[in-house]
Specification:
Length: 544
């Protein structure tokens, strides 16, 4: 007899994120009647506890929200700003080059990456507070219950966290993460073993100081971080260590409500965050490759990889040359996304021309993402990060501050150069796809400079090749953020040889699932289909 079919109730809501504890907190919020924004924020606050080098209240991010019932569609930009004390030439004489993967810049003694002068004004907490005020349903304090519990009771070092703790990014021009963990006394007590090495897989972390900090924010609101007692302690620690961020910087930070950047791809509308977030990279790649019949080329064939990689390089070069904070330099978005420009780029690719994306002398992978949808059609995607973690944990507060000054070009006069109050370009691109006016995909990724190329490939997997979300995020990926093409270890050697015969330098990654960690939910025909990138530790949880 045939085996009986197993029937499960179809979920009406779903959340996906790279950390199991965070997914658990978000799913619990959905089950308790919270909406998608409530669930995403509960998940995000928990991420800051259990992935402490990826994100947290000392970080920055972008949240993308669409309400199907009302048609409200908003992006809230919480990208951090250069402190008022920063100057365009503060590291000009110390410039040593770009990081080899295109994520950040190297200066002498790593002054823009490690320590108090590397910190930009954190933006994520006011961003989350604004999202909650505009869309949330549950009381603000309820959103912290999971995060406070994990901080107080403890959590165990998971495989991805252990990998991050052991990561040495010297090959890219950045420091080993062990240096960040051990910078402060609080960091050593929380995340290091008695011999000073990072904690290992399966070891426990308890962070009662962070539990107290989160309890304060839950009770007193986000302003406690920006103008209250927490702000005063951050500012005092900055002043004691020659940091740049001041009490005035914290008090003055305001997130931006911005309009989505729209493109059409194969008849569907795609909404991405505008500069200084990274949606332009995704949009430009898709605009160029739409000129090719990718299905006929075949998925991950040598010619497919060549075409898409060239589009990646063109978009990366244009980002480097043109995209920064629009308040300081107006990006030529209409030109970059025009039919004429996409046609010209496609023609150069067809002719065999190779775009140049050379790094000088040569967004770190410290980011995380969440996608969620609820039974009432509220759809949310958020990406948030510490950039590169600075290592700075203000005494007694339990959280690490971002090191996002590493993202700012130390050379004056460029699109992403340092300036007081300036927001640096970020690769983060939480994305929504619409079909016939209805949201059908919410997707995002951590992964620094790889975010745009990874999100684009997963969208191609979904929209050109008809893959389900889990299959789409698991399919082998490649990257072109320099003149070389980097490939995952599941792309066949014969494909590599064919690309090398075309004149490309091809670098094979040892990782099974490299190049960012895409997570998303597809909603075709009202059926929820979640996908979690296997290189991280999370999963998609449905709630009936």
């Amino acid at each position: 007899m045939p085996r009986p079919l197993r029937t499960l109730p179809k979920p009406t809501a779903m959340i996906v994120a790279p950390q199991p504890e965070a997914v658990e907190a978000g799913a619990a919020m959905l089950a308790a009647g919270g909406n998608a924004v409530d669930a995403v924020l509960a998940c995000a606050f928990t991420q800051g506890v259990v992935d402490p080098l990826m994100c947290g209240v000392g970080g920055l991010g972008v949240i993308h929200i669409y309400d199907s019932r009302t048609g409200r569609h908003e992006i809230i930009d919480g990208l951090s700003t250069c402190p008022a004390a920063s100057t365009p030439d503060m590291w000009a004489a110390d410039f040593e080059g770009e990081c080899a993967d295109g994520f950040g810049f190297r200066v002498r003694n790593y002054a823009n990456e490690l320590g108090h002068r590397a910190v930009t004004t954190p933006g994520i907490l006011r961003t989350f507070a604004l999202a909650h005020a505009r869309f949330g349903g549950k009381p603000w304090g309820d959103l912290f219950e999971g995060a406070i519990r994990f901080a107080s009771d403890g959590w165990i070092i998971r495989p991805h966290v252990a990998g991050v703790f052991a990561t040495d990014e010297s090959g890219y021009g950045r420091l080993p993460y062990s240096r960040k963990l051990a910078l402060t006394q609080d960091g050593r007590a929380l995340y290091c073993r008695p011999d000073g090495s990072p904690k290992r897989l399966g070891e426990a972390v308890r962070n009662p100081d962070l539990a107290t900090t989160l309890s304060t924010i839950a009770r007193d609101g986000a302003d406690s971080f920006y103008t209250g007692a927490i702000a005063e302690r951050i500012a005092a620690d900055m002043q004691a260590h020659d940091g740049l961020v001041s009490l005035a910087d914290l008090a003055g930070f305001t997130p931006r409500q911005v309009e989505p950047l729209w493109i059409t791809y194969r008849g569907r509308r795609i909404a991405v965050p505008p500069p200084p977030a990274g949606g332009i990279t995704v949009a430009e790649i898709l605009r160029i490759v739409e000129r090719f019949d990718l299905a006929v080329l075949g998925h991950n064939t040598p010619e497919y990889i060549r075409v898409v990689a060239e589009a990646m390089k063109i978009a990366g070069r244009d980002k480097d040359e043109h995209i920064g904070d629009p308040d300081f330099i107006l990006p030529p978005l209409a030109m970059l996304l025009s039919d004429a420009y996409a046609d010209a780029c496609a023609a150069r690719i067809r002719s065999g021309e190779k775009a140049q994306l050379t790094r000088v002398l040569s967004d770190s992978k410290g980011t995380t993402t969440i996608s969620c949808t609820d039974a009432n059609g509220l759809v949310v995607s958020v990406t948030h990060t510490l950039g590169v973690p600075s290592g700075v944990i203000p005494p007694g507060l339990g959280f690490m501050l971002n090191g996002a000054m590493n993202w700012c070009d130390p050379r004056p006069g460029r699109a992403t150069s340092i300036a007081p109050g300036k927001r640096r370009f970020s690769s983060m691109s939480p994305t929504l796809v619409f079909d016939d006016g209805k949201p059908v995909v919410t997707i995002g990724a951590p992964g620094g400079a790889w975010i745009g190329v990874a999100v684009s490939q997963v969208l191609l997997n979904l929209l050109d090749f008809g893959m389900g979300m889990q299959e789409a995020v698991m399919a082998p990926r490649f990257s072109a953020t320099t003149d070389a093409i980097d490939i995952g270890n599941r792309i066949p050697r014969a494909t590599q040889s064919a690309l090398e015969a075309m004149g490309y330098q091809v670098n094979r990654s040892a990782a099974t699932f490299p190049f960012a960690g895409v997570h998303g939910i597809a909603m075709w025909d009202g059926l929820l289909d979640g996908g979690a990138d296997p290189q991280r530790d999370g999963y998609a949880a449905g709630v009936a």
